[in-house]
């Protein structure tokens, strides 16, 4: 990689301390601005639409006004030409010329047949008189309203010395309405008469208005007696102001196509607003997704913060260059420094002992180790702390490592407890060895007491008879053989007790319990007066794998202990009973007595070593019995004898250990 390649910036871990309330407030503010922008776009679209409607309305009004003014100017222009022609006709009439010849020499009014329905001369007459009116004028005056209008027209020409108009009036046959025009003539200041003409209005409109205008407009005379459509964008009334009369035309637009330029501008603006609306909607969706992501982030941050506060693990984070980026409060409390002090520290960090090497190298090594590394940290007060360190790389979704995260667990107190426990264990083991030695010694003393006592008695008796020379050689041999058997038995007792003390497996052979139990029980020296009862089957009974010598010692101790307590009870006759009982996959040697029994408060310790409740007892007999039962994978229990009213001990042996 070249040296001018920019280094990757350190990962931003400020989000670990993000103030979610401030973020939520910023999000709400951004959503508020977004709603305001959406409302502004909607208001702009509405204002633009209203502006377009207003412009179209103004354009329609302007067009109607222009059309009305054009109609007014066009028709008035043609009527002025007609006035000029009529003035020429009046002059020709006064000069005695031909009216038709004069009319033929003038403009288009006379060249198009039917454009002028009537023209003639009305001589001067007294005001209100009709004697000189032509027949057509007399017919038009049949209606009183028409007559008054026509009379006013003629009076106006005479009085004001200018042309005047009347009508338009409907004809008697219901055809096209006529508009009447009168042009006065004066000779040397004296009124001589009027030249009058009647113009069919609808024919006039068809001839005068150009085709290009009629292509987009339908013009007709407004009928005041019928209900016309109100003025709107497609219909309007155009008044033509003529002297003495008002010609009202109803104009209908046949081409209602609105102007293209405003609508094109509106379409372009609407597209821009629509694009802005789509962008705002996309921003809204993005903001909603961001808000949901921020809500999840806030939940995760709250969970992380709660977890970080609830655990005692010290957490740190580094970038790839080994610079410390984050320290959690638990680690700061562990080493006695605040997070701000540790983050602002330059050089080796104060909690890291120098004899452990480089901290960042240990962090990377801990990430590769299968188990936690046992390290030490130094508290601010100088105390060394034992910790277990774990670490892991901080990876992006692409797999790139951008840093490291490490955790430490303070095990100082655990180490102290472990050391203390180790010392206590050593002391306990030493005490146990002493106890075991005492148990072995006591067991040997207890078990060897009888054979050694018998050996001592045989040896003393034999020695006395030899000294007195009262024994022959043949009598010595049986005594010595019996002493040999006693010594052999003592040796085997020592071997079994030694094996038992060392927790070695006993040598178990098949043993018929019924005859064996009868022989052992009958060989026990019971106190005088104590009766022995044998509740054993007549045959060999069940057979179990057992070490006969060890089991003999156990039964011997139980029967001897029962006989001693039966003799002290005061019940007559004192009795000891030996029997066999069966259980679930096991057989029990049961010894009952008629003694006082074992008090409840003593039953928890009756099988403990050196726990004797008998005067002069060592407290090893029942402990040895329990050890022998356990050596045979069995157990021994204590209960009350229901009929002899004394103690009842049962030594349980498994049939198939």
TrEMBL record:
Designated name of the protein: histidine kinase
Phylogenetic placement of the source organism: Bacteria, Pseudomonadati, Pseudomonadota, Betaproteobacteria, Burkholderiales
Gene name, Swiss-Prot/TrEMBL: tmoS2
Organism: Hydrogenophaga pseudoflava
Gene Ontology molecular function terms on file: ATP binding; phosphorelay sensor kinase activity
Transmembrane segments: 30-52, 264-284
Reaction equations catalysed: ATP + protein L-histidine = ADP + protein N-phospho-L-histidine
PROSITE patterns: HIS_KIN (PS50109), PAC (PS50113), PAS (PS50112)
The keyword Metal-binding is assigned to this record: no
Domain named PAC: residues: 371-423
Domain PAS residues, every copy: 299-343
Assigned EC number: 2.7.13.3
